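fwd from M.: "can u put these together and see what the complex looks like"

so here's what she sent:
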Amino acid sequence: MAGIQWVNILISIGFLTAVGIALTLLLVIAEKRILNYGDCEIDINNGKKKLTVRGGSSLLSTLSDNGIFIPSACGGRGTCAYCKVSVLAGGGMLGPIERPSLTDDEIARGVRLSCQVKVRSDVAISIPDEIFSVRRFRATVVHKKPLTHDILELRLRLVEPPVIDFTAGQYIQLESREYRGREAVNRAYSMSSIPSDAGHVELIIRRVPEGICTTWIFDILQEGEEISLSGPYGEFRLTDTQAPAIFIAGGSGMAPIWAMLRRMREIKDPRPAWYFFGALTQRDLFFVEELRKLEGELGNFTFIPALSNEPPDTPWEGERGLITDVVRRRVPDLPGREAYLCGSPGMIDACVKTLVDLGVAREHIYFDKFA
Amino acid sequence: MKRSPEESEILGNFTPSKFSGDGFLGTDPRTPQEIIVEDALELERAGIDAAAIGNALGVLFDRALQAMGAMIEIMPGVTARYHESRGVIPSPFRGEGAFEKGEVAVSGLPGFGDVILTRLSIHLIERHGFFQGRGQRYRIEPGAALMLARASVR
């Protein structure tokens, strides 16, 4: 009796194994025959570049495999909405994951999340020309220098490729590593270094409470360690005009402004400039001595630090109040003024409103919003 | 209890991920649905719904945001301050888009101490009645949310 039971068990195991193998073979055949999209062509910017690729993967990863790096922070999950590209043909239907991340205008223009578009046939896309110059870099940490109680400067030496070609105001994406059970992520940081120092990248980073990437940078990352990044990205930069320039930023928002001002010093840019540095208290200020020195070096530059939460009984002699109020009091009334802002959406929106009230043309207000 | 693949995927969005290092459940052993139901009972006893609370917290968030980092007093002894942060965080309920990461730190709320408000946490309350799990930094106890909501409409 027991022998018959064993035989039945063995037959069952054998049957299940055979079914499993058959299903696996079926899947392999299906993948090769049914899901074989063959070679597909990706036409970028109306023939400027054409790629012949194996179909079947997402547009984002296919482009990345071919050295074209679209910004992305979620690893292709369709949640960060950073990887938008205009798909002119061959993108297929808009997916339910994409819809909430796109405006009606974007949908009408064919904008898609490249991580959600599968390359199944020939595709035509449009991307900013700057994306072609984005590279992935390996770098080592030269220093982590505290600037305030919650902001540090990260200086990196590029290893491979050894130099980066960028414009002051642009940003990179830093790749963190897994630690304490937290996943590796990509996060965007503006470069505070100047383009002539092409072998290095400097970043000004504020600690985000419980932030995955900033906790890694502040607490885990060591000087001398090797890390990866990609860039440069972004269109925030000084115009070629010599129009009077108003800069407004505080905290880590100073990064692109610091790069622009030092670039102006380097090329002896004569345009009149004012930098409104908004902070809470004196302990939140940094680079003050360097900015004061820059006043002498640039000739036509005024540095205006403003504190919104400084106790009234301290010897602070500079401006006090919200940065918008200080801007309202101190912005000079000159024709053709341009403004450059970097910071949180709330700060940017409030400053744009103030500047427009003061007569600065909206189309001459450029900003890098933390969103 | 067995879960469908869809349920498992949704639940997976509440655990630590690329976007939320600590997830949305903290140390709470309950499922999101259980948390929502228990918190809803507390709100029911107070006679207010989650949508109204979320709406009022949104008003409070905007007040602090407009102060651009300066401390504001929202009721005697209770202050709020906006802290900027770069980037966005998606809702764990898929298809609801992503929300700015900046946060408002409320200090000195009687009986609750410090409370953190974000655009996403307010959305989760307003849309789903989800106050997040206990032990999570962004968990807002319904009683605390109620107190803040009342302060915001004063």
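replying to her w this: Chain A has three domains: 39-131, 134-233, 245-369.
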